């Protein structure tokens, strides 16, 4: 069964003014769709085409060397963006709530302190990539970043491996139409779009 492009869970304009409708449309319909198309081409006719995407990218060492780069880049892009659309939503932002709010306070001291770390990781990522909040091996939240479409599920590619519960895309295609080269401005504004209910759900699932 081929991998498929998930629909946006809201209208492209729903996150304005934080993210404009044109950026959302191009980002989802063009960029994410290309990752899905290329991933399907890479795994067609192999045992990997029926694998769940999270399992696939967590087991890249099982993918033949000649296909591994394509699966890493495009499978990572598919997983990352599928998560990205879900953890944003209209009427989002504000302070975190629920269990994840408690975990943030325990790990970072405050939400503002966590935001500062995430924004620093995103702004400091050279070229393209992602900044993440993960549940680490010790069960605590931590901030890390990855290049390109890598993520912390891929062993050995992040500063710290773990299960992402939140990630912010810092590829230029995620923000350039509105923010141009002002990545820090995009990062500061992005928090107004976060869907904390979705982040809490990812937190609960990861904790089991």
From TrEMBL:
<protein>
    <recommendedName>
        <fullName>Superoxide dismutase</fullName>
        <ecNumber>1.15.1.1</ecNumber>
    </recommendedName>
</protein>
<feature type="binding site">
    <location>
        <position position="173"/>
    </location>
    <ligand>
        <name>Mn(2+)</name>
    </ligand>
</feature>
<dbReference type="InterPro" id="IPR019831">
    <property type="entry name" value="Mn/Fe_SOD_N"/>
</dbReference>
<dbReference type="InterPro" id="IPR036314">
    <property type="entry name" value="SOD_C_sf"/>
</dbReference>
<dbReference type="InterPro" id="IPR019832">
    <property type="entry name" value="Mn/Fe_SOD_C"/>
</dbReference>
<dbReference type="InterPro" id="IPR001189">
    <property type="entry name" value="Mn/Fe_SOD"/>
</dbReference>
<comment type="similarity">
    <text>Belongs to the iron/manganese superoxide dismutase family.</text>
</comment>
<dbReference type="GO" id="GO:0004784">
    <property type="term" value="F:superoxide dismutase activity"/>
</dbReference>
<feature type="domain" description="Manganese/iron superoxide dismutase C-terminal">
    <location>
        <begin position="96"/>
        <end position="202"/>
    </location>
</feature>
<keyword id="KW-0479">Metal-binding</keyword>
<dbReference type="InterPro" id="IPR019833">
    <property type="entry name" value="Mn/Fe_SOD_BS"/>
</dbReference>
<comment type="function">
    <text>Destroys radicals which are normally produced within the cells and which are toxic to biological systems.</text>
</comment>
<feature type="domain" description="Manganese/iron superoxide dismutase N-terminal">
    <location>
        <begin position="3"/>
        <end position="88"/>
    </location>
</feature>
<keyword id="KW-0560">Oxidoreductase</keyword>
<dbReference type="InterPro" id="IPR036324">
    <property type="entry name" value="Mn/Fe_SOD_N_sf"/>
</dbReference>
<dbReference type="Pfam" id="PF00081">
    <property type="entry name" value="Sod_Fe_N"/>
</dbReference>
<dbReference type="Pfam" id="PF02777">
    <property type="entry name" value="Sod_Fe_C"/>
</dbReference>
<dbReference type="GO" id="GO:0030145">
    <property type="term" value="F:manganese ion binding"/>
</dbReference>
<dbReference type="GO" id="GO:0005737">
    <property type="term" value="C:cytoplasm"/>
</dbReference>
<feature type="binding site">
    <location>
        <position position="27"/>
    </location>
    <ligand>
        <name>Mn(2+)</name>
    </ligand>
</feature>
<feature type="binding site">
    <location>
        <position position="81"/>
    </location>
    <ligand>
        <name>Mn(2+)</name>
    </ligand>
</feature>
<feature type="binding site">
    <location>
        <position position="169"/>
    </location>
    <ligand>
        <name>Mn(2+)</name>
    </ligand>
</feature>
């Amino acid at each position: 069964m081929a991998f498929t492009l998930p629909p946006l869970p809201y209208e492209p304009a729903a996150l304005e003014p934080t993210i404009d409708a044109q950026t959302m449309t191009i980002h989802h319909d063009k960029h994410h769709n290309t990752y899905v198309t290329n991933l399907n081409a890479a795994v067609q006719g192999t045992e990997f085409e029926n694998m769940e995407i999270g399992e696939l990218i967590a087991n890249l060492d099982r993918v033949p060397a000649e296909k591994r780069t394509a699966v890493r880049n495009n499978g990572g892009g598919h997983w990352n963006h599928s998560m990205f659309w879900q953890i944003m939503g209209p009427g989002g932002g504000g302070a975190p709530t629920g269990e994840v709010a408690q975990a943030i306070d325990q790990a970072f001291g405050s939400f503002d302190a966590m935001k500062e770390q995430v924004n620093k990781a995103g702004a400091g990522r050279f070229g393209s990539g992602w900044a993440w909040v993960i549940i680490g091996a010790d069960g605590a939240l931590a901030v890390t970043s990855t290049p390109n479409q890598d993520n912390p599920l891929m062993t050995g590619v992040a500063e710290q491996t773990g299960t992402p519960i939140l990630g912010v895309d810092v590829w230029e295609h995620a923000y350039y139409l509105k923010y141009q080269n002002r990545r820090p401005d995009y990062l500061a504004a992005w928090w107004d779009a976060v869907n904390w209910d979705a982040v809490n759900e990812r937190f609960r699932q990861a904790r089991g």
